[in-house]
């Protein structure tokens, strides 16, 4: 296994649209030779880089350590090549394993089947050598193996993260349609918020966006609340190094903020959830929550960075979604002049009712839903434009 200072290749998986930002993030934790793909960044580093990437990346979903790549055009080839890897380097017959599979543009299309074949090859290797086989543990395995087959080439990696890194460990309360924490963090980064000025989510739900913002501003490492990372079970786990990184992260946290972060939601239950989650993330004193419709709220300072994720009408039914979007436009213009507002929506028709000119549109995915993150620059005196065409408001 790896010595402390050995350099090895790694890959960080992320969501569509965050690849450039992830390159920047990984560069800051010591990653070198960074290469961007779609939803992935390849890089090199040592054990410390791997630990830091897991601890500090707000955008990565998993940090993988590739161990072998080979052609896998059929199941026999896959089985044979997996069996050629000396698995005793990573686990014993008494340990547990889990296999996650992804496939694209390949003959083998069934991920569950690829996982099973991979697992079979590994356990058969142990059984043939020792008469005993490791067991599968999908939740807390000694090693989580990731197999990605693309155009019939398989890449086998060890998953150093374990559970996906978007699971920060602070969100015990979920609302109706909570955002993935990685998506929330990525939206905030795309907004170019300076982490030092007023920030608001006018429809905060379970609070993900404002909590991620407060953690960024307080310099709280996103991985600090997680109970476990995959690498902690590996043979080369360096507990001393990991502890020193956790101590360093704690020391670098800012004790408080001198500007406001505000979360508004008309649902009292959503605000109860947000408050609970903020407590778990240690940022309850950094966020002002208000249980009321955003239409009834007036900010103390009109200049804010606003990042929000209104209902789209799909997962949440709204009596009058178009009216809600019209209200967003009206309220932004009325109460937030001088602000930049970013709105994530999958509902293009509803977005037209905002009635303001979007100065940027960024394609993102909320789960499988294709969305746009729309930017509205609310200059003082911004005109709300309503072009009436065939009786409908038209996007401007
Ligand atoms: C898609 S959810 C937001 C999810 C949130 N980003 C999260 O991570 O949990 C939309 C939220 O908008 C809220 N909402 C809808 N209309 C509102 C209004 N007029 N004022 C304030 N909140 C509103 C809903 O209660 C819901 O919690």
Q: Estimate the helix proportion, in percent.
A: 25-40%
The sequence of SSEs as H and E is EHEEHEHEHEEEHEHHEHEEHEHEEEE
Low-confidence runs of at least 5 consecutive residues: 386-396
CATH class of the largest domain: Alpha Beta
Span of the ends, CA to CA? 58 Å
Main β sheet profile: 8 strands, mixed
SSE class: alpha/beta
Number of strands: 17
Number of domains: 2
Strand coverage percent: 15-25%
Strand order of the largest sheet: 2-3-1-4-8-7-5-6
What are the bound molecules? S-adenosylmethionine
**Proper CATH architecture of the largest domain:** 3-Layer(aba) Sandwich
Shape: elongated
Overall pLDDT level: 93
CATH fold label of the largest domain: Rossmann fold
What is the fourth-level CATH superfamily of the largest domain? Vaccinia Virus protein VP39
Tally the helices.
Answer: 10
Q: Radius of gyration, rounded? A: 23 Å
Summarize this entry quickly.
With 396 residues, the chain is of the alpha/beta class. It has ten helices and 17 strands. The chain is elongated, with a radius of gyration of 23 Å.
Any overview of this molecule?
The protein is an alpha/beta fold and 396 residues long. It folds into 2 domains: 8-159, 2-Layer Sandwich (VC0802-like); 181-219 and 254-394, Vaccinia Virus protein VP39 (Rossmann fold, 3-Layer(aba) Sandwich). The chain is 29% helix and 25% strand. The protein has helices spanning 19-28, 47-56, 75-84, 111-130, 181-190, 208-217, 239-251, 268-280, 321-335, 348-352, and strands at residues 8-13, 32-36, 40-45, 62-71, 96-104, 135-136, 143-150, 153-159, 199-201, 261-265, 287-291, 305-308, 340-345, 360-366, 369-377, 387-389, 392-394. The strands form 3 sheets. The chain has an 8-stranded mixed beta sheet with strand order 2-3-1-4-8-7-5-6. The protein has a 7-stranded mixed beta sheet with strand order 11-10-9-12-13-15-14, covered by helices on one side. It has a two-stranded antiparallel sheet with strand order 16-17. β5 (96-104), α4 and β6 (135-136) form a beta-alpha-beta unit. α2 (47-56) packs across α7 and α5 (181-190) crosses α6 (208-217). The longest helix is centred in the first third of the chain and has 20 residues, at 111-130. The chain is elongated and about 75 Å long. Residues 386-396 have low confidence and may be disordered. S-adenosylmethionine binds next to α6 and β10.
């Amino acid at each position: 296994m790896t010595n402390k200072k050995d350099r090895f290749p790694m890959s960080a998986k992320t969501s569509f649209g965050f690849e450039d930002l992830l390159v920047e993030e990984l560069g800051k934790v010591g990653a070198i030779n960074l290469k961007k793909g779609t939803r992935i960044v390849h890089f090199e580093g040592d054990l410390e880089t791997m630990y830091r990437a897991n601890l500090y990346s707000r955008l990565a979903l998993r940090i993988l350590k590739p161990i072998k790549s080979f052609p896998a055009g059929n199941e026999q080839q896959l089985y044979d090549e997996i069996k050629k890897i000396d698995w005793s380097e990573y686990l014993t017959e008494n340990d547990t394993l889990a296999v996650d599979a992804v496939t694209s543009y390949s003959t083998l299309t069934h991920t569950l089947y690829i996982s099973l074949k991979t697992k079979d090859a590994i356990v058969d290797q142990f059984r043939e050598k020792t008469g005993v086989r490791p067991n599968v543990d999908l939740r807390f395995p000694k090693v989580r193996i990731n197999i990605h087959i693309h155009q019939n080439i398989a890449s086998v990696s060890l998953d150093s993260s374990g559970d996906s890194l978007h699971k920060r460990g602070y969100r015990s309360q979920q609302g109706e349609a909570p955002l993935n924490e990685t998506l929330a963090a990525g939206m905030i980064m795309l907004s170019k918020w300076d982490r030092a000025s007023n920030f608001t989510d006018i429809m905060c739900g379970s609070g993900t966006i404002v909590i991620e913002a407060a953690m960024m501003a307080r310099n709280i490492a996103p991985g600090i609340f997680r109970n476990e990372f995959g690498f902690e079970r590996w043979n080369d786990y360096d507990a001393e190094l990991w502890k020193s990184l956790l101590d360093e992260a704690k020391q670098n946290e800012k004790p408080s903020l001198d500007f406001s972060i505000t979360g508004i939601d008309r649902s009292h239950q959503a605000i109860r959830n947000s408050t609970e989650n903020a407590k778990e993330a240690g940022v309850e004193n950094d966020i002002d929550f208000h249980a009321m419709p955003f239409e009834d709220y007036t900010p103390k300072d009109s200049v804010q960075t606003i990042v929000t994720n209104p209902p789209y009408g799909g997962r949440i039914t709204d009596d009058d979604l178009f009216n809600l979007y019209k209200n967003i436009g009206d309220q932004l213009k009325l109460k937030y002049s001088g602000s930049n507002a970013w709105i994530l929506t999958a509902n293009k028709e509803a977005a037209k009712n905002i009635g303001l000119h979007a100065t940027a549109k960024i394609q993102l995915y909320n789960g499988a839903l294709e969305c746009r993150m729309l930017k509205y620059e609310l200059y003082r005196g911004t005109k709300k434009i309503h072009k009436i065409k065939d009786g409908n408001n038209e996007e401007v």
